[in-house]
Amino acid sequence: MRLFDLRLIIAFLFGLYGVVLVVIGLGFTTDDDLKKAEGVNINLWAGVAMVVLAAAFAAWATLRPQFADTDKEPLKEL
Amino acid sequence: MPVSVLAEADLRLDAGPIDYALLVIYFVVVLGIGVMARRSVSSSLDFLLSGRSLPAWVTGLAFISANLGALELMGMTANGAQYGMATVHYYWIGAIPAMVFLGLVMMPFYYGSKVRSVPEFMLRRFGKPAHLVNAISFAVAQILIAGINLFALAVIIDALLGWPLPVSIVVAALVVLAYTTLGGLSAAIYNEVLQFFVIVAALAPLTIVGLIKVGGWQGIVEKVTDQEQLSAWPATELTGIDNPVWSVIGLVFGLGFVLSFGYWTTNFAEVQRAMSAKSMSAAKRTPIIGAYPKALIPAIIIIPGIIAAVIVPEMAQLKAGDTSSGVAYNNVLPLLMRDLLPNGILGIAITGLLASFMAGVAANVSSFNTVFTYDLWQDYIKKDRPDEYYLRVGRLATVGACVLAIGTAFIAAALGGSNIMDYIQALFSFFNAPLFATFIVGMFWKRMTPTAGWVGLLAGTFTAMFIYAISEPSFGLKWLELPGQGASFLGAGLAFVVDVVVSVGVSLVTRPKPDSELVGLVYSLTPKKDRSHSTTGEDAGWYRSPALLGGGVLALTTVLYFIFG
Predict the structure, then answer these.
(1) Closest residue in B to A23 (Cα–Cα)
(2) Theoretical Cys-Cys bridge with B329: which of B78, B429, B439, B475, CB 3.0 to 4.6 Å?
Protein backbone atom coordinates (compact mmCIF):
# COMPACT_ATOMS: atom_id res chain seq x y z
CA MET A 1 0.00 0.00 0.00
CA ARG A 2 1.44 3.36 -1.02
CA LEU A 3 -0.01 6.50 0.37
CA PHE A 4 0.68 10.06 -0.72
CA ASP A 5 3.10 12.09 1.38
CA LEU A 6 1.32 13.79 4.28
CA ARG A 7 4.20 16.22 4.76
CA LEU A 8 3.32 17.95 1.50
CA ILE A 9 -0.31 18.38 2.59
CA ILE A 10 0.81 19.93 5.87
CA ALA A 11 3.17 22.22 3.93
CA PHE A 12 0.35 23.22 1.57
CA LEU A 13 -2.25 23.97 4.26
CA PHE A 14 0.05 25.94 6.53
CA GLY A 15 1.73 27.69 3.62
CA LEU A 16 -1.68 28.94 2.52
CA TYR A 17 -2.81 29.83 6.05
CA GLY A 18 0.50 31.56 6.75
CA VAL A 19 0.39 33.73 3.63
CA VAL A 20 -3.23 34.74 4.28
CA LEU A 21 -2.45 35.69 7.88
CA VAL A 22 0.67 37.64 6.92
CA VAL A 23 -1.35 39.60 4.35
CA ILE A 24 -4.05 40.34 6.94
CA GLY A 25 -1.39 41.26 9.49
CA LEU A 26 0.43 43.65 7.17
CA GLY A 27 -2.45 45.14 5.24
CA PHE A 28 -5.71 44.83 7.11
CA THR A 29 -4.98 45.20 10.81
CA THR A 30 -7.05 47.84 12.57
CA ASP A 31 -6.30 49.54 15.86
CA ASP A 32 -9.13 47.57 17.43
CA ASP A 33 -7.49 44.32 16.33
CA LEU A 34 -4.22 45.41 17.91
CA LYS A 35 -5.90 46.49 21.10
CA LYS A 36 -7.68 43.14 21.40
CA ALA A 37 -4.38 41.27 21.25
CA GLU A 38 -2.54 43.59 23.68
CA GLY A 39 -0.74 45.48 20.93
CA VAL A 40 0.68 42.37 19.30
CA ASN A 41 0.11 41.95 15.58
CA ILE A 42 -0.79 38.33 16.25
CA ASN A 43 -1.96 37.63 12.70
CA LEU A 44 1.42 38.66 11.31
CA TRP A 45 3.47 36.66 13.79
CA ALA A 46 1.28 33.57 13.67
CA GLY A 47 1.38 33.81 9.87
CA VAL A 48 5.17 34.00 9.83
CA ALA A 49 5.38 30.99 12.16
CA MET A 50 3.07 29.00 9.89
CA VAL A 51 5.10 29.84 6.79
CA VAL A 52 8.21 28.62 8.61
CA LEU A 53 6.43 25.40 9.61
CA ALA A 54 5.29 24.88 6.02
CA ALA A 55 8.80 25.46 4.70
CA ALA A 56 10.22 22.98 7.21
CA PHE A 57 7.82 20.25 6.15
CA ALA A 58 8.39 20.96 2.46
CA ALA A 59 12.15 20.77 2.99
CA TRP A 60 11.86 17.52 4.93
CA ALA A 61 9.69 15.95 2.24
CA THR A 62 12.11 17.07 -0.47
CA LEU A 63 15.29 15.96 1.28
CA ARG A 64 13.94 12.60 2.48
CA PRO A 65 11.37 11.40 -0.09
CA GLN A 66 8.88 8.88 1.24
CA PHE A 67 9.76 5.83 -0.82
CA ALA A 68 13.36 6.62 -1.65
CA ASP A 69 15.27 3.64 -0.38
CA THR A 70 12.69 0.94 0.21
CA ASP A 71 10.59 0.96 -2.94
CA LYS A 72 12.20 0.16 -6.20
CA GLU A 73 9.04 -1.04 -7.94
CA PRO A 74 7.19 1.39 -10.20
CA LEU A 75 3.80 2.64 -9.07
CA LYS A 76 1.01 0.19 -9.76
CA GLU A 77 -1.28 2.82 -11.21
CA LEU A 78 1.23 3.91 -13.82
CA MET B 1 -19.69 18.59 31.36
CA PRO B 2 -22.44 21.18 31.74
CA VAL B 3 -22.60 22.29 28.12
CA SER B 4 -26.23 23.29 28.42
CA VAL B 5 -25.10 26.35 30.34
CA LEU B 6 -23.28 27.59 27.27
CA ALA B 7 -26.36 28.84 25.56
CA GLU B 8 -27.12 31.24 28.39
CA ALA B 9 -23.78 33.00 28.35
CA ASP B 10 -22.73 35.39 25.64
CA LEU B 11 -20.08 33.50 23.76
CA ARG B 12 -20.96 34.64 20.28
CA LEU B 13 -17.78 35.25 18.31
CA ASP B 14 -17.41 38.06 15.87
CA ALA B 15 -16.45 35.77 12.97
CA GLY B 16 -15.99 37.53 9.63
CA PRO B 17 -15.77 36.32 6.02
CA ILE B 18 -12.04 35.70 6.30
CA ASP B 19 -12.55 33.40 9.31
CA TYR B 20 -15.13 31.39 7.42
CA ALA B 21 -12.82 31.22 4.39
CA LEU B 22 -10.03 29.70 6.52
CA LEU B 23 -12.52 27.21 7.91
CA VAL B 24 -13.72 26.24 4.43
CA ILE B 25 -10.13 25.73 3.21
CA TYR B 26 -9.62 23.26 6.04
CA PHE B 27 -12.74 21.28 5.16
CA VAL B 28 -11.66 21.10 1.53
CA VAL B 29 -8.23 19.73 2.52
CA VAL B 30 -9.81 17.22 4.91
CA LEU B 31 -12.13 15.89 2.21
CA GLY B 32 -9.28 15.96 -0.31
CA ILE B 33 -7.27 13.65 1.96
CA GLY B 34 -10.20 11.23 1.95
CA VAL B 35 -10.38 11.26 -1.84
CA MET B 36 -6.63 10.81 -2.27
CA ALA B 37 -6.39 8.07 0.37
CA ARG B 38 -9.07 6.10 -1.46
CA ARG B 39 -6.65 5.29 -4.26
CA SER B 40 -4.47 3.28 -1.93
CA VAL B 41 -7.28 1.14 -0.48
CA SER B 42 -7.46 -2.25 -2.15
CA SER B 43 -8.10 -4.64 0.73
CA SER B 44 -9.95 -4.69 4.04
CA LEU B 45 -6.61 -4.44 5.87
CA ASP B 46 -5.80 -1.29 3.88
CA PHE B 47 -9.15 0.19 4.81
CA LEU B 48 -9.34 -0.86 8.46
CA LEU B 49 -5.66 -0.88 9.47
CA SER B 50 -3.94 1.31 6.83
CA GLY B 51 -2.28 -1.86 5.49
CA ARG B 52 0.18 -1.61 8.43
CA SER B 53 2.23 0.82 6.38
CA LEU B 54 2.50 4.15 8.22
CA PRO B 55 5.70 5.78 9.52
CA ALA B 56 6.07 6.22 13.28
CA TRP B 57 5.89 10.03 13.37
CA VAL B 58 2.48 9.89 11.64
CA THR B 59 1.03 7.18 13.88
CA GLY B 60 2.61 8.81 16.94
CA LEU B 61 0.96 12.18 16.34
CA ALA B 62 -2.33 10.47 15.42
CA PHE B 63 -2.05 8.54 18.68
CA ILE B 64 -2.35 11.65 20.83
CA SER B 65 -4.56 13.48 18.37
CA ALA B 66 -7.21 10.75 18.60
CA ASN B 67 -7.37 11.57 22.28
CA LEU B 68 -7.21 15.35 21.78
CA GLY B 69 -10.91 15.54 21.02
CA ALA B 70 -12.87 18.58 21.98
CA LEU B 71 -14.18 17.06 25.20
CA GLU B 72 -10.55 16.74 26.27
CA LEU B 73 -9.69 20.23 25.03
CA MET B 74 -12.65 21.96 26.70
CA GLY B 75 -12.43 19.74 29.79
CA MET B 76 -8.72 20.28 30.46
CA THR B 77 -8.78 24.06 29.90
CA ALA B 78 -11.73 24.05 32.30
CA ASN B 79 -9.74 22.05 34.85
CA GLY B 80 -6.89 24.51 34.41
CA ALA B 81 -9.22 27.38 35.30
CA GLN B 82 -10.83 25.52 38.19
CA TYR B 83 -7.94 23.60 39.78
CA GLY B 84 -4.83 25.33 38.39
CA MET B 85 -1.54 23.53 38.00
CA ALA B 86 -2.82 20.28 39.54
CA THR B 87 -4.36 19.59 36.12
CA VAL B 88 -0.89 18.66 34.81
CA HIS B 89 -1.29 15.32 36.59
CA TYR B 90 -3.74 14.24 33.89
CA TYR B 91 -0.87 14.54 31.42
CA TRP B 92 2.34 13.81 33.25
CA ILE B 93 1.29 11.08 35.62
CA GLY B 94 -1.96 10.14 33.92
CA ALA B 95 -0.62 9.53 30.42
CA ILE B 96 3.16 9.46 29.96
CA PRO B 97 4.06 6.33 32.01
CA ALA B 98 1.16 4.39 30.49
CA MET B 99 2.14 5.40 26.95
CA VAL B 100 5.74 4.29 27.50
CA PHE B 101 4.50 1.04 29.04
CA LEU B 102 2.23 0.39 26.07
CA GLY B 103 5.10 0.94 23.66
CA LEU B 104 7.78 -1.07 25.41
CA VAL B 105 5.87 -3.83 27.19
CA MET B 106 2.56 -4.40 25.43
CA MET B 107 3.13 -3.53 21.76
CA PRO B 108 5.40 -6.55 21.23
CA PHE B 109 2.36 -8.76 21.88
CA TYR B 110 -0.22 -6.63 20.11
CA TYR B 111 1.90 -6.08 17.02
CA GLY B 112 3.93 -9.29 17.13
CA SER B 113 0.86 -11.54 17.29
CA LYS B 114 -0.54 -9.81 14.16
CA VAL B 115 -3.97 -9.40 15.72
CA ARG B 116 -6.05 -6.77 13.98
CA SER B 117 -7.69 -5.32 17.07
CA VAL B 118 -7.53 -5.35 20.87
CA PRO B 119 -10.62 -7.59 21.11
CA GLU B 120 -8.95 -10.02 18.70
CA PHE B 121 -6.08 -10.34 21.17
CA MET B 122 -8.71 -11.15 23.78
CA LEU B 123 -10.14 -13.84 21.49
CA ARG B 124 -6.80 -15.55 20.94
CA ARG B 125 -5.72 -15.35 24.56
CA PHE B 126 -9.00 -16.13 26.33
CA GLY B 127 -11.52 -17.39 23.77
CA LYS B 128 -15.02 -16.33 22.85
CA PRO B 129 -16.82 -15.21 26.04
CA ALA B 130 -14.16 -12.65 26.98
CA HIS B 131 -13.91 -11.61 23.34
CA LEU B 132 -17.63 -10.94 23.03
CA VAL B 133 -17.74 -8.92 26.26
CA ASN B 134 -14.85 -6.79 25.04
CA ALA B 135 -15.92 -6.41 21.40
CA ILE B 136 -19.55 -5.55 22.09
CA SER B 137 -18.86 -3.14 24.94
CA PHE B 138 -16.22 -1.40 22.86
CA ALA B 139 -18.42 -1.12 19.76
CA VAL B 140 -21.37 0.26 21.71
CA ALA B 141 -19.11 2.68 23.58
CA GLN B 142 -17.63 4.09 20.39
CA ILE B 143 -21.05 4.79 18.87
CA LEU B 144 -22.34 6.49 22.00
CA ILE B 145 -19.18 8.52 22.49
CA ALA B 146 -19.21 9.55 18.82
CA GLY B 147 -22.79 10.74 19.35
CA ILE B 148 -21.80 12.69 22.46
CA ASN B 149 -18.92 14.29 20.57
CA LEU B 150 -21.31 15.35 17.81
CA PHE B 151 -23.77 16.77 20.29
CA ALA B 152 -21.08 18.68 22.16
CA LEU B 153 -19.78 20.03 18.87
CA ALA B 154 -23.23 21.25 17.88
CA VAL B 155 -23.72 23.00 21.22
CA ILE B 156 -20.40 24.83 20.85
CA ILE B 157 -21.06 25.84 17.25
CA ASP B 158 -24.47 27.12 18.24
CA ALA B 159 -22.96 29.25 20.99
CA LEU B 160 -20.01 30.49 18.93
CA LEU B 161 -21.49 30.99 15.50
CA GLY B 162 -25.24 30.69 15.96
CA TRP B 163 -25.83 27.66 13.73
CA PRO B 164 -28.85 25.52 14.69
CA LEU B 165 -28.00 22.23 16.45
CA PRO B 166 -29.33 19.79 13.81
CA VAL B 167 -27.38 21.52 11.03
CA SER B 168 -24.04 21.22 12.86
CA ILE B 169 -24.69 17.62 13.90
CA VAL B 170 -25.53 16.46 10.40
CA VAL B 171 -22.88 18.49 8.56
CA ALA B 172 -20.07 17.36 10.89
CA ALA B 173 -21.18 13.73 10.71
CA LEU B 174 -21.34 13.86 6.91
CA VAL B 175 -17.83 15.29 6.62
CA VAL B 176 -16.43 12.56 8.88
CA LEU B 177 -18.48 9.96 7.01
CA ALA B 178 -17.22 11.19 3.65
CA TYR B 179 -13.53 10.94 4.39
CA THR B 180 -13.58 7.79 6.51
CA THR B 181 -15.75 5.85 4.04
CA LEU B 182 -13.48 6.88 1.20
CA GLY B 183 -10.04 6.56 2.70
CA GLY B 184 -10.62 4.42 5.80
CA LEU B 185 -8.16 4.53 8.67
CA SER B 186 -5.44 6.18 6.54
CA ALA B 187 -7.68 9.18 5.92
CA ALA B 188 -8.66 9.31 9.59
CA ILE B 189 -5.03 9.14 10.72
CA TYR B 190 -3.75 11.68 8.18
CA ASN B 191 -6.47 14.06 9.24
CA GLU B 192 -5.61 13.49 12.89
CA VAL B 193 -2.02 14.55 12.23
CA LEU B 194 -3.22 17.63 10.36
CA GLN B 195 -5.62 18.35 13.18
CA PHE B 196 -2.80 18.17 15.71
CA PHE B 197 -0.98 21.00 13.96
CA VAL B 198 -4.14 23.06 13.54
CA ILE B 199 -4.94 22.74 17.26
CA VAL B 200 -1.43 23.85 18.16
CA ALA B 201 -1.78 26.72 15.67
CA ALA B 202 -5.01 27.69 17.40
CA LEU B 203 -3.86 27.40 21.01
CA ALA B 204 -0.30 28.73 20.82
CA PRO B 205 -1.24 32.29 19.75
CA LEU B 206 -4.04 32.29 22.33
CA THR B 207 -1.57 31.34 25.05
CA ILE B 208 1.01 33.88 23.91
CA VAL B 209 -1.42 36.80 23.77
CA GLY B 210 -2.89 35.67 27.09
CA LEU B 211 0.54 35.59 28.71
CA ILE B 212 1.37 39.07 27.41
CA LYS B 213 -1.93 40.40 28.72
CA VAL B 214 -1.49 38.91 32.16
CA GLY B 215 2.14 40.05 32.41
CA GLY B 216 4.00 36.78 31.81
CA TRP B 217 4.50 33.97 34.31
CA GLN B 218 5.27 36.58 36.97
CA GLY B 219 1.90 38.14 36.28
CA ILE B 220 0.16 34.81 36.83
CA VAL B 221 2.01 34.23 40.09
CA GLU B 222 0.97 37.67 41.34
CA LYS B 223 -2.64 37.55 40.22
CA VAL B 224 -3.74 34.03 41.07
CA THR B 225 -5.54 34.49 44.36
CA ASP B 226 -5.24 30.93 45.64
CA GLN B 227 -1.50 30.35 45.66
CA GLU B 228 -1.95 26.62 46.24
CA GLN B 229 -3.22 26.38 42.70
CA LEU B 230 0.23 27.25 41.40
CA SER B 231 1.71 23.99 42.57
CA ALA B 232 0.71 20.57 41.31
CA TRP B 233 1.02 18.68 44.60
CA PRO B 234 -0.75 17.43 46.67
CA ALA B 235 -3.81 18.24 44.52
CA THR B 236 -6.30 17.82 47.35
CA GLU B 237 -8.87 19.91 45.46
CA LEU B 238 -8.62 17.74 42.39
CA THR B 239 -8.85 14.41 44.18
CA GLY B 240 -11.35 15.52 46.78
CA ILE B 241 -9.20 13.79 49.42
CA ASP B 242 -8.33 16.19 52.24
CA ASN B 243 -5.36 14.31 53.64
CA PRO B 244 -2.38 15.32 51.45
CA VAL B 245 -0.63 11.96 51.80
CA TRP B 246 -3.70 10.00 50.72
CA SER B 247 -4.34 12.53 47.98
CA VAL B 248 -0.91 11.83 46.49
CA ILE B 249 -1.37 8.07 46.89
CA GLY B 250 -4.77 8.34 45.21
CA LEU B 251 -3.21 10.28 42.34
CA VAL B 252 -0.31 7.93 41.80
CA PHE B 253 -2.23 4.65 42.03
CA GLY B 254 -5.71 5.72 40.97
CA LEU B 255 -4.96 8.13 38.16
CA GLY B 256 -1.34 7.28 37.39
CA PHE B 257 -1.64 3.53 37.47
CA VAL B 258 -5.11 2.06 37.15
CA LEU B 259 -7.11 4.69 35.28
CA SER B 260 -4.43 5.76 32.85
CA PHE B 261 -2.97 2.31 32.15
CA GLY B 262 -6.52 1.03 31.67
CA TYR B 263 -7.31 3.73 29.16
CA TRP B 264 -4.10 3.98 27.15
CA THR B 265 -3.17 0.32 26.92
CA THR B 266 -6.53 -1.33 26.15
CA ASN B 267 -8.55 1.32 24.32
CA PHE B 268 -8.55 0.15 20.73
CA ALA B 269 -9.23 3.64 19.35
CA GLU B 270 -5.70 4.43 20.61
CA VAL B 271 -3.94 1.11 20.11
CA GLN B 272 -5.25 0.89 16.53
CA ARG B 273 -3.00 3.83 15.59
CA ALA B 274 0.06 1.88 16.72
CA MET B 275 -1.14 -1.32 15.03
CA SER B 276 -1.24 0.52 11.71
CA ALA B 277 2.49 1.30 11.90
CA LYS B 278 4.76 -0.24 9.29
CA SER B 279 7.10 -2.25 11.50
CA MET B 280 7.48 -3.56 15.03
CA SER B 281 9.93 -0.76 15.77
CA ALA B 282 7.51 1.89 14.47
CA ALA B 283 4.65 0.31 16.44
CA LYS B 284 6.67 0.42 19.68
CA ARG B 285 7.70 4.00 18.99
CA THR B 286 4.14 5.18 18.19
CA PRO B 287 2.88 5.81 21.74
CA ILE B 288 6.34 6.96 22.84
CA ILE B 289 6.65 9.54 20.07
CA GLY B 290 3.14 10.66 20.98
CA ALA B 291 4.24 11.02 24.61
CA TYR B 292 6.60 13.92 23.83
CA PRO B 293 3.94 16.36 22.60
CA LYS B 294 1.61 14.98 25.28
CA ALA B 295 4.14 16.02 27.95
CA LEU B 296 4.51 19.53 26.51
CA ILE B 297 0.98 20.35 25.42
CA PRO B 298 -0.25 21.35 28.91
CA ALA B 299 1.63 24.59 28.22
CA ILE B 300 -1.01 25.59 25.67
CA ILE B 301 -4.00 23.90 27.33
CA ILE B 302 -3.68 24.39 31.09
CA ILE B 303 -1.90 27.75 31.08
CA PRO B 304 -4.73 29.39 29.06
CA GLY B 305 -7.17 27.98 31.62
CA ILE B 306 -5.21 29.54 34.49
CA ILE B 307 -4.90 32.83 32.59
CA ALA B 308 -8.62 32.92 31.80
CA ALA B 309 -9.44 32.61 35.48
CA VAL B 310 -7.51 35.84 35.99
CA ILE B 311 -8.23 38.01 32.94
CA VAL B 312 -11.73 37.03 31.76
CA PRO B 313 -14.12 38.97 34.04
CA GLU B 314 -16.90 36.34 33.95
CA MET B 315 -14.42 33.59 34.75
CA ALA B 316 -12.92 35.52 37.68
CA GLN B 317 -16.47 36.05 39.04
CA LEU B 318 -17.21 32.35 38.69
CA LYS B 319 -14.05 31.49 40.55
CA ALA B 320 -15.08 33.84 43.35
CA GLY B 321 -18.34 31.91 43.60
CA ASP B 322 -20.58 34.27 41.62
CA THR B 323 -22.48 32.28 38.97
CA SER B 324 -24.74 35.11 37.78
CA SER B 325 -23.01 35.58 34.40
CA GLY B 326 -24.06 32.09 33.28
CA VAL B 327 -20.61 30.99 32.15
CA ALA B 328 -19.18 27.61 33.11
CA TYR B 329 -15.56 26.51 33.37
CA ASN B 330 -15.99 24.71 30.08
CA ASN B 331 -16.35 28.07 28.35
CA VAL B 332 -12.71 29.00 28.90
CA LEU B 333 -11.58 28.58 25.31
CA PRO B 334 -14.50 30.37 23.63
CA LEU B 335 -14.22 33.26 26.09
CA LEU B 336 -10.48 33.65 25.54
CA MET B 337 -10.98 33.49 21.77
CA ARG B 338 -13.67 36.16 22.04
CA ASP B 339 -11.50 38.46 24.14
CA LEU B 340 -8.04 38.03 22.62
CA LEU B 341 -8.11 37.00 18.96
CA PRO B 342 -8.75 39.35 16.03
CA ASN B 343 -10.26 38.12 12.76
CA GLY B 344 -7.91 35.93 10.81
CA ILE B 345 -6.29 34.05 13.65
CA LEU B 346 -9.79 33.75 15.10
CA GLY B 347 -10.71 31.68 12.05
CA ILE B 348 -7.77 29.36 12.72
CA ALA B 349 -8.88 28.98 16.32
CA ILE B 350 -12.46 28.12 15.30
CA THR B 351 -11.06 25.67 12.75
CA GLY B 352 -8.90 24.08 15.46
CA LEU B 353 -11.90 23.58 17.75
CA LEU B 354 -14.01 22.04 14.98
CA ALA B 355 -11.10 19.92 13.77
CA SER B 356 -10.64 18.54 17.24
CA PHE B 357 -14.32 17.59 17.53
CA MET B 358 -14.36 15.90 14.16
CA ALA B 359 -11.15 13.98 14.75
CA GLY B 360 -12.64 12.64 17.97
CA VAL B 361 -15.67 11.39 16.06
CA ALA B 362 -13.48 9.96 13.29
CA ALA B 363 -11.36 8.04 15.82
CA ASN B 364 -14.52 6.53 17.31
CA VAL B 365 -15.92 5.62 13.90
CA SER B 366 -12.71 4.21 12.44
CA SER B 367 -12.06 1.98 15.44
CA PHE B 368 -15.72 0.92 15.57
CA ASN B 369 -15.75 -0.26 11.96
CA THR B 370 -12.66 -2.43 12.50
CA VAL B 371 -14.07 -4.13 15.58
CA PHE B 372 -17.47 -4.50 13.94
CA THR B 373 -16.06 -5.98 10.73
CA TYR B 374 -13.36 -8.28 12.06
CA ASP B 375 -14.52 -9.08 15.60
CA LEU B 376 -18.27 -9.26 15.25
CA TRP B 377 -19.22 -9.78 11.60
CA GLN B 378 -16.32 -12.00 10.49
CA ASP B 379 -16.04 -14.01 13.71
CA TYR B 380 -19.69 -14.59 14.51
CA ILE B 381 -21.91 -13.81 11.53
CA LYS B 382 -20.33 -14.45 8.10
CA LYS B 383 -17.06 -16.35 8.18
CA ASP B 384 -14.75 -17.23 5.29
CA ARG B 385 -15.89 -14.76 2.68
CA PRO B 386 -13.45 -13.21 0.19
CA ASP B 387 -11.66 -10.08 1.37
CA GLU B 388 -13.63 -7.70 -0.89
CA TYR B 389 -16.70 -8.72 1.06
CA TYR B 390 -15.17 -7.53 4.33
CA LEU B 391 -13.94 -4.33 2.72
CA ARG B 392 -17.55 -3.65 1.75
CA VAL B 393 -18.75 -4.53 5.26
CA GLY B 394 -16.17 -2.09 6.64
CA ARG B 395 -17.48 0.72 4.44
CA LEU B 396 -21.10 -0.03 5.33
CA ALA B 397 -20.20 -0.22 9.02
CA THR B 398 -18.79 3.29 8.70
CA VAL B 399 -22.05 4.56 7.26
CA GLY B 400 -24.01 2.74 9.95
CA ALA B 401 -21.79 4.15 12.71
CA CYS B 402 -22.30 7.72 11.50
CA VAL B 403 -26.08 7.29 11.25
CA LEU B 404 -26.24 5.80 14.75
CA ALA B 405 -23.99 8.54 16.11
CA ILE B 406 -26.30 11.19 14.62
CA GLY B 407 -29.21 9.39 16.29
CA THR B 408 -27.38 9.35 19.62
CA ALA B 409 -26.59 13.05 19.29
CA PHE B 410 -30.26 13.89 18.70
CA ILE B 411 -31.34 11.75 21.66
CA ALA B 412 -28.75 13.47 23.86
CA ALA B 413 -30.08 16.84 22.66
CA ALA B 414 -33.68 15.82 23.38
CA LEU B 415 -32.80 14.62 26.89
CA GLY B 416 -31.09 17.87 27.71
CA GLY B 417 -27.48 16.90 27.38
CA SER B 418 -25.00 17.36 30.11
CA ASN B 419 -25.94 14.73 32.68
CA ILE B 420 -26.46 12.09 30.04
CA MET B 421 -22.93 12.71 28.83
CA ASP B 422 -21.47 12.35 32.30
CA TYR B 423 -23.30 9.07 32.87
CA ILE B 424 -22.24 7.58 29.57
CA GLN B 425 -18.63 8.52 30.12
CA ALA B 426 -18.74 7.03 33.60
CA LEU B 427 -20.38 3.89 32.25
CA PHE B 428 -17.55 3.14 29.86
CA SER B 429 -14.84 4.00 32.29
CA PHE B 430 -16.06 0.93 34.22
CA PHE B 431 -14.58 -1.37 31.60
CA ASN B 432 -11.07 0.07 31.42
CA ALA B 433 -9.45 -0.84 34.73
CA PRO B 434 -10.64 -4.49 34.71
CA LEU B 435 -9.58 -4.84 31.06
CA PHE B 436 -6.10 -3.71 31.93
CA ALA B 437 -5.95 -6.15 34.87
CA THR B 438 -7.06 -9.04 32.68
CA PHE B 439 -4.61 -8.17 29.91
CA ILE B 440 -1.63 -7.75 32.16
CA VAL B 441 -2.21 -10.95 34.13
CA GLY B 442 -2.96 -12.82 30.90
CA MET B 443 0.18 -11.56 29.18
CA PHE B 444 2.53 -12.55 31.98
CA TRP B 445 0.93 -15.64 33.53
CA LYS B 446 0.36 -18.49 31.13
CA ARG B 447 -1.68 -20.38 33.72
CA MET B 448 -4.55 -17.84 33.50
CA THR B 449 -7.50 -19.68 32.01
CA PRO B 450 -10.17 -18.67 29.46
CA THR B 451 -12.86 -18.88 32.17
CA ALA B 452 -10.83 -16.59 34.42
CA GLY B 453 -10.65 -14.16 31.49
CA TRP B 454 -14.34 -13.37 31.35
CA VAL B 455 -15.21 -13.98 35.02
CA GLY B 456 -12.48 -11.60 36.17
CA LEU B 457 -13.59 -9.00 33.66
CA LEU B 458 -17.21 -9.10 34.83
CA ALA B 459 -16.25 -9.11 38.54
CA GLY B 460 -14.02 -6.06 38.04
CA THR B 461 -16.60 -4.20 35.99
CA PHE B 462 -19.35 -4.78 38.57
CA THR B 463 -17.01 -3.58 41.33
CA ALA B 464 -16.46 -0.29 39.47
CA MET B 465 -20.21 0.09 38.90
CA PHE B 466 -20.93 -0.60 42.56
CA ILE B 467 -18.51 2.07 43.78
CA TYR B 468 -19.99 4.55 41.30
CA ALA B 469 -23.54 3.76 42.42
CA ILE B 470 -22.82 4.29 46.12
CA SER B 471 -20.75 7.45 45.65
CA GLU B 472 -22.50 9.40 42.86
CA PRO B 473 -24.41 12.14 44.72
CA SER B 474 -27.26 12.35 42.21
CA PHE B 475 -28.16 8.70 42.87
CA GLY B 476 -28.99 9.57 46.45
CA LEU B 477 -27.30 6.61 48.17
CA LYS B 478 -24.21 8.53 49.28
CA TRP B 479 -22.72 5.68 51.34
CA LEU B 480 -19.36 7.03 50.29
CA GLU B 481 -18.65 10.73 50.04
CA LEU B 482 -15.68 11.70 47.91
CA PRO B 483 -16.00 14.92 45.93
CA GLY B 484 -13.68 15.58 42.99
CA GLN B 485 -12.11 12.61 41.28
CA GLY B 486 -11.57 10.52 44.43
CA ALA B 487 -14.49 8.17 43.78
CA SER B 488 -13.38 7.28 40.26
CA PHE B 489 -9.82 6.62 41.48
CA LEU B 490 -11.15 4.36 44.20
CA GLY B 491 -13.59 2.56 41.89
CA ALA B 492 -10.92 1.90 39.28
CA GLY B 493 -8.39 0.78 41.88
CA LEU B 494 -10.78 -1.67 43.54
CA ALA B 495 -11.97 -2.95 40.15
CA PHE B 496 -8.35 -3.70 39.27
CA VAL B 497 -7.67 -5.54 42.53
CA VAL B 498 -10.92 -7.53 42.38
CA ASP B 499 -10.23 -8.50 38.76
CA VAL B 500 -6.72 -9.76 39.62
CA VAL B 501 -7.87 -11.68 42.70
CA VAL B 502 -10.83 -13.29 40.94
CA SER B 503 -8.74 -14.12 37.85
CA VAL B 504 -6.09 -15.85 39.95
CA GLY B 505 -8.67 -17.68 42.05
CA VAL B 506 -10.69 -18.92 39.06
CA SER B 507 -7.53 -19.88 37.16
CA LEU B 508 -6.45 -22.20 39.96
CA VAL B 509 -9.61 -24.27 39.69
CA THR B 510 -10.17 -24.25 35.89
CA ARG B 511 -8.21 -25.64 32.95
CA PRO B 512 -5.65 -23.44 31.14
CA LYS B 513 -5.08 -23.37 27.38
CA PRO B 514 -2.25 -25.60 26.13
CA ASP B 515 1.07 -23.75 25.76
CA SER B 516 1.08 -24.25 21.98
CA GLU B 517 -1.96 -21.96 21.59
CA LEU B 518 -0.40 -19.16 23.60
CA VAL B 519 2.78 -18.58 21.62
CA GLY B 520 3.11 -14.89 20.80
CA LEU B 521 0.45 -13.98 23.37
CA VAL B 522 2.17 -14.70 26.68
CA TYR B 523 5.57 -13.43 27.73
CA SER B 524 7.17 -16.72 28.82
CA LEU B 525 6.04 -18.56 25.67
CA THR B 526 7.12 -15.94 23.12
CA PRO B 527 10.67 -16.31 21.79
CA LYS B 528 12.74 -13.17 22.29
CA LYS B 529 13.18 -12.65 18.57
CA ASP B 530 9.40 -12.38 18.10
CA ARG B 531 9.25 -9.61 20.66
CA SER B 532 12.23 -7.69 19.26
CA HIS B 533 12.19 -5.13 16.51
CA SER B 534 14.57 -4.87 13.58
CA THR B 535 17.33 -2.27 13.76
CA THR B 536 18.13 -2.06 10.07
CA GLY B 537 16.89 0.04 7.14
CA GLU B 538 14.26 2.54 8.26
CA ASP B 539 14.43 1.26 11.83
CA ALA B 540 18.17 1.88 12.15
CA GLY B 541 19.86 4.54 14.28
CA TRP B 542 20.15 5.05 18.02
CA TYR B 543 17.53 7.82 17.90
CA ARG B 544 14.97 5.25 16.77
CA SER B 545 15.48 3.00 19.78
CA PRO B 546 12.10 2.68 21.57
CA ALA B 547 13.73 2.12 24.97
CA LEU B 548 15.91 5.21 24.62
CA LEU B 549 13.01 7.37 23.44
CA GLY B 550 10.86 6.01 26.28
CA GLY B 551 13.53 6.75 28.87
CA GLY B 552 13.92 10.21 27.37
CA VAL B 553 10.28 11.15 27.77
CA LEU B 554 10.16 9.83 31.33
CA ALA B 555 13.21 11.96 32.14
CA LEU B 556 11.62 14.98 30.46
CA THR B 557 8.45 14.52 32.51
CA THR B 558 10.44 14.24 35.74
CA VAL B 559 12.28 17.47 34.94
CA LEU B 560 8.97 19.20 34.14
CA TYR B 561 7.62 18.06 37.52
CA PHE B 562 10.65 19.53 39.27
CA ILE B 563 10.27 22.87 37.50
CA PHE B 564 6.49 23.28 37.51
CA GLY B 565 5.29 20.77 40.09
Answers:
(1) B344
(2) B78
